[in-house]
Design a protein that fits this description.
By secondary structure, the protein is of the alpha+beta class. Helices cover 26% and strands 29% of the residues. The two termini are 26 Å apart.
C-alpha cells in the first residue's frame, strides 16, 4: 500500500480506512490533550510485555477520571490490534503500534460523570536502523516535575518532549538530552538514558522526573540478573557522560541504541557489550512475547 490513507485503522472498535476515520470535533481530548496512549513494537517475536503496556494505559485513564468499570480489557484490546494487523496484511512486518484513548468531555475543565472516550489504533511499518548510533543535543526545554503531572504515565499532552525533540532536530541531532529543572540528567525526548563506566551501569532515577519506560525496566532486569552488573540509579550532572565507556538509549521501538556524539563531542563506545545486551534482550523477548 503506497498511500497511507488506504491503510486501515481501528476507531472505537471498528476497522476503517485511515482517510475515512473521524473523531469528535468538540472534546477535551482535542482541546486540552486529555488522553493517554501507548506505543508498542510488533515483530517476529510478537508483542513484548503487552500486559504492562495496557496496565499503564489504564492507570492513565484512571488519572484522567475514567471509572474502573470503563477501563480497557486487555484480551479484547489484543484481539483488536491483531485483527488490525491482519487487515493491513502486516503480519510479517516490523510495526509501530499506537493505541490512543482520548476523552469526549465537553464541559471544559468541569468534570463529566463517567466521561466517554474515543479510541484510535494505528499500525505503521518501520525500518529500524539501530546499527546507526544516535547523536544528542542538550535541550533548553526541561522535563516537567512529577508534582505537576505524573511522569510515569504516557499522557497525550507531551509538548515539552515535542519541543525538545525539535530543538535537537534543528541542530542536526537525532534526539534531545533533557535535564531536570535542577540541572540533572533526566532522559531523552523519546528514550531513556544509560551509560557504562567500568563494571557499573548508571541511569537517571525516577527522582529525575523521567518517564520510566518498560524497555528501561527490562534492560535493568537483564543487567542485574544476567550480567550481574552493579546498577546505580540516581541524580547525575551531564559532565559525567564525558567519562563514560559507553552510552545508550532504550525505548519500546528502538529497544537498544548506542550514542556516538553529544553536543558535538564524540563518545566512547563498546559495541560488543551492546551487541551482547541486545542479544540477551532478543532471548527474553522470545521467551515472553505474545
Amino acid at each position: 500500500m503506497s498511500d497511507s490513507s488506504d491503510q486501515f485503522i481501528n476507531v472505537n472498535g471498528k476497522i476503517t480506512k485511515m482517510g475515512e476515520g473521524t473523531i469528535p470535533a468538540v472534546s477535551s481530548g482535542l482541546y486540552y490533550g486529555a488522553g493517554c496512549f501507548e506505543t508498542l513494537r510488533y515483530d517476529d517475536f510478537g508483542f513484548f510485555r503487552f500486559s504492562e503496556h495496557i496496565n499503564r494505559l489504564n492507570r492513565g485513564l484512571s488519572y484522567l477520571g475514567v471509572s474502573e468499570s470503563e477501563l480497557l480489557d486487555e484480551n479484547d484490546l489484543l484481539e483488536q490490534v491483531c485483527h488490525l494487523i491482519k487487515r493491513n496484511q502486516f503480519e510479517n512486518e516490523t510495526l509501530r503500534i499506537r493505541i490512543q484513548i482520548s476523552l469526549e468531555e465537553t464541559k471544559g475543565y468541569h468534570r463529566d460523570e463517567n466521561p466517554d472516550s474515543f479510541q484510535v489504533i494505528t499500525c505503521q511499518k518501520i525500518t529500524l536502523q539501530n546499527s546507526n548510533a544516535a547523536t544528542l543535543k542538550t535541550s533548553k526545554t526541561r522535563v516537567i516535575p512529577d508534582v505537576c503531572r505524573p511522569s510515569d504515565l504516557k499522557l497525550s499532552n507531551m509538548l515539552h518532549y515535542r519541543q525538545a525533540f525539535r530543538e535537537a532536530a534543528d541542530a542536526g541531532a537525532d534526539d534531545a538530552l533533557m535535564l531536570t529543572t535542577g540541572g540533572f540528567m533526566a532522559e531523552c525526548s523519546v528514550a531513556n538514558l544509560f551509560w557504562k563506566k567500568g563494571d557499573s551501569i548508571f541511569t537517571p532515577s525516577t527522582d529525575c522526573d523521567i518517564l520510566p519506560g518498560l524497555m528501561r525496566k527490562a534492560v535493568i532486569e537483564l543487567l542485574e540478573e544476567k550480567f550481574r552488573m552493579n546498577l546505580v540509579e540516581g541524580r547525575f550532572k551531564p559532565k559525567q557522560l564525558l567519562k563514560a565507556d559507553a552510552i545508550w538509549l532504550t525505548n519500546s521501538i528502538k529497544e537498544v541504541q548506542a550514542v556516538e556524539k553529544i553536543d558535538g563531542t564524540v563518545c566512547k563506545q563498546e559495541p560488543e557489550f551492546l551487541k551482547q545486551l541486545s542479544s540477551e534482550l532478543e532471548k527474553l523477548k522470545q521467551e515472553e512475547n505474545l
